[in-house]
Design goal:
By secondary structure, the chain is of the alpha/beta class. The protein has helices spanning 14-23, 41-55, 70-84, 107-135, 147-150, 156-176, 194-197, 201-209, 219-230; strands at residues 5-8, 28-34, 60-65, 89-92, 138-143, 181-188, 241-244. Helix content is 48%, strand content 16%. A 7-stranded parallel β-sheet has the order 3-2-1-4-5-6-7, with helices on both faces. Bound molecules: NADP nicotinamide-adenine-dinucleotide phosphate.
């Protein structure tokens, strides 16, 4: 029998990549990369993820899309269903940060971050839920952030998008729980990725001091929880936000 299907948005690198590779042990994977005009590197990175998945005995497809665009996000869900015969798990992972003090923040910086981090989850979930409802089962897992609960200077748009994802998660959990679909959020702390690698070394050192476990998280630390939330063992977990931050926020 074919394995069930999971789509991970923004899985060409970083946390999404680790989630795709981990989920591939039990799911066929739609590896989504950001389909930007004239950027073939993203496609190559996604292909590399799929190659790794296949080498480990898994399978899937790579699908380009801009999840901040409603039509592109809807096409991504359609393409997942068309190529893999369904969608059982949707991981809304794609995200960006464009840090800026609020008084200097432009409208486009605000909208880019909100559209990519929050509206994308709405666009993808709306399309996936229609299919999941017919099957009376499904899992939606949203990658939020501890910043969505605590706020952060220079990240008003990012924090608002990540807090928005929590309200979104609770609402999906209530609205679609009765249809056999769960929705949960994962709130990573400070994780090693391209997103955090661009921060100055002194900021990283200061952040590490605030983490009881004394280290930054890895993408694999996040992937392990996502895999659990996607598994049969998590069937009764719904509408929760789980922090994976080494104890940083306690
Ligand atoms: P990353 O390394 O920058 O990767 C982000 C991924 O999202 C990339 O694959 C990127 O594609 C993709 N993406 C961006 N915009 C997209 C779009 N419009 N359509 C499709 N894909 C798009 O970031 P990361 O650290 O792995 O972050 C993954 C998620 O975890 C994000 O939601 C982030 O907010 C969240 N998070 C990260 C941390 C952390 O410390 N790293 C902490 C808390 C939460 P490209 O390769 O084309 O850019």
């Amino acid at each position: 029998m074919n394995k069930p299907v999971a789509l991970v948005t923004g899985s060409s690198r970083g946390i999404g990549r680790a989630i795709a590779i981990e989920l591939a042990k039990n799911f066929r994977i739609a590896v989504n990369y950001y389909d930007k005009i004239e950027v073939d590197a993203n496609r190559a990175q996604a292909q590399e993820v799929l190659d790794l998945i296949r080498q480990a005995g898994g399978d899937g497809v790579i699908l380009g899309a801009d999840v901040s665009d409603p039509a592109s996000a809807a096409q991504l869900i359609e393409a997942t269903i068309a190529n893999l015969d369904g969608i059982d798990v949707l991981v809304n992972n794609a995200g960006i940060n464009k840090d800026q003090l609020m008084v200097r923040m432009t409208d486009s910086q605000w909208h880019d971050v909100i559209d990519t981090n929050l509206s994308s989850a709405f666009y993808c979930s709306r399309a996936a839920l229609k299919y999941m409802m017919k099957k009376k089962q499904g899992r939606i897992i949203n990658i939020s952030s501890v910043v969505g609960m605590a706020g952060n200077a220079g990240q008003a748009h990012y924090a608002a998008s990540k807090a928005g994802l929590l309200g979104f998660t609770y609402s999906v959990a209530k609205e679609y729980g009765p249809r056999g679909i769960t929705a949960n959020a994962v709130a990573p702390g400070y994780i090693v990725s391209d997103m955090t690698n661009k921060l100055p070394a002194e900021v990283t050192a200061r952040m590490t001091e605030q983490i009881p476990l004394g280290r930054l998280g890895t993408p694999e630390d996040i992937a392990a929880l996502v895999a659990f939330l996607a598994s049969p063992a998590a069937a009764y977990i719904n509408g929760q936000v789980i922090r994976v931050d080494g104890g940083m926020s306690i």
